[in-house]
Every structure is written in structure tokens, then in C-alpha cells.
UniProtKB/TrEMBL annotation:
Mitochondrion found in the keyword field: no
Boundaries of every Transcription factor NikR nickel binding C-terminal domain copy: 57-132
Alphabetically ordered keywords of this record: DNA-binding, Transcription, Transcription regulation
Protein name: CopG family transcriptional regulator, nickel-responsive regulator
Biological process according to GO: regulation of DNA-templated transcription
Pfam family of the protein (one): NikR_C
Stored PANTHER family: NICKEL-RESPONSIVE REGULATOR (PTHR34719:SF2)
Family of the protein in this entry: Belongs to the transcriptional regulatory CopG/NikR family.
All copies of domain Ribbon-helix-helix protein CopG, residue ranges: 8-45
Superkingdom, taxonomy of origin: Bacteria
GO MF term list: DNA binding
Alphabetized InterPro entries for the sequence: Acetolactate_synth/TF_NikR_C, ACT-like_dom_sf, Arc_rbn_hlx_hlx, CopG, CopG/NikR_regulator, Ribbon_hlx_hlx, TF_NikR_Ni-bd_C
Amino acid sequence: MAKQKLTRISITVPEETLSLLDQLVEQQGFDSRSKALVDMINYRLIAEQATANAVMVGTMTLLYDRNFANIRAQLAELQHQHLEQVISSLTVQLDQDKILEVMLLQGMSNELQCISQQFVAVKGVIKGHLELMDAVMPPLQQNEQEQNEQEQNAQEQNALK
């Protein structure tokens, strides 16, 4: 991947803000103030994209209690209902009762937020969090091949008519 071109800017901030920024840089382990500021700017830009209902990729993290009746079946059914958006999931048994599930999602940000609320609302879910990113996964080759085959079949059907 090509190295990004960097541009220098100058900003003026109150001394107290700079002091707080320096504390954040140290606490969070940033290499520099610049890295911390870029991280904050990117966070804000991602939030703007989510508000604009852009296509985004995200992770949905759930912590739930396996003892609730049919909770695994309910979560699996929700994933099935949203096959186009739920790309993958990983489930880990944390202890006797708690399960951590992480799902990889892609779609319109409003859709993903709505889907995440459905997962969190399932009885037995202790915590849930959706983290959106300003990225899009490349189409899966398998999906592209299936789509091409479907288009070819449709063209053949039309030619027969």
C-alpha cells in the first residue's frame, strides 16, 4: 500500500486544552499529538458518515447469558433475517453462563444501527455495541460468480421467450 501524503497544519488551542491533549497522548499511548488529533478527526468523520447513511462496515459485539430460553436460536434467526448484512460471526464461551459473540456487518449505516438494536433487545443480552468504520469490504468472489451466473441465466430465459 502506498504511503499517504501528509500535510502540515497549524492550530491554536487554549493552554488547558493542550495540557489535556498531552495527557491523552500519554495515557492512550499515541506516538504524537498529531496521531491523537488524526484519530479524533477520523472518529468525527466516521460519525458524520453514519449520520449520512453511508455504506459502512462494522462489528457488533454482544455479551449474553446462555441460560435464557432459546437465546441462541433467536440470535441465529436474527442473523438469518439479515443475511445480506451479517457477513460473519464468532462465538466464544466465556464462562459457565456468559457468551461473547462478535459479528462482522456491512450495509447502510442506518440499517446496521437498526439491526444492532434488534440484537441488543433480545431477552438475555447483557450488553451490545455496534462499532462502525468508514470502510467497505470488497465483494466476495463467490458472490460475484453467483451473480454473474444468475444474470446469464436471466439472459438465457429472455432469449427463449
